Amino acid sequence: MISVGVINIGIGNTKGVYNAVKYIGYDVSLISSNKLEDFSHIIFPGVGNFEAGANALTPLWREEIKKFINKGNFFMGICLGMQLLFEKSEESEGEGLGIIQGEIKSIQKISTKQIQLPRLGWKLVNYDEDYKGRLGNPGQKSKYYFVHSYGLLPDMHKLKKDEFIVEQIENGCKIAASIEKNNIFGVQYHPEKSSIFGLDVLNNFIKLN
Fold this sequence. Notes:
This protein has five helices and twelve strands. By secondary structure, the protein is of the alpha/beta class. It has one domain (4-206): 3-Layer(aba) Sandwich (Rossmann fold), CATH 3.40.50. The strands form three sheets. A seven-stranded mixed beta sheet has the order 2-1-3-4-12-11-10. Strands 5-6-9 form a three-stranded mixed beta sheet, with no helix packed on it. Strands 7-8 form a two-stranded antiparallel ribbon.
């Protein structure tokens, strides 16, 4: 049975995500305590500074999130929520969840041209023909809404065999629009602000079983 929860620890656009999930026809709850065992799918939105997000993840939250994922349930991080899946970030101090190995980097670090930061607005994302993930389809072209200055840079990430990254390229800089690893999903864009394209991503995630 599908049961969707949205983590609400004061760092994300929780109401927007909640409303988007309701709009596509699912029952959804805001989770303000670290009781996750009643849910099949959990979404972790985040906006802002990496250290603030890391500080909001108390030891109990960290333990419960990892326990939830280790049971094979489905977990999605959005924007800062995606970045907190990793070990650390160049943006600031603070430890991520370390569920996916790697570090979040400054977008400007490998760009061949100046990119205005924060990187804001609708960006076209192309799914490769050999895409094997589950949030989209091979060859799909969709636009999503981004707001960020740091991200997962595929050229600086040692890709594991069970990870799938969908890249978005701007001014010669490859930026991960999303990453998928077994039952763990991270999207750098905001699906709740990305119209029908983002609603499709949320729907594809929630349908997983």
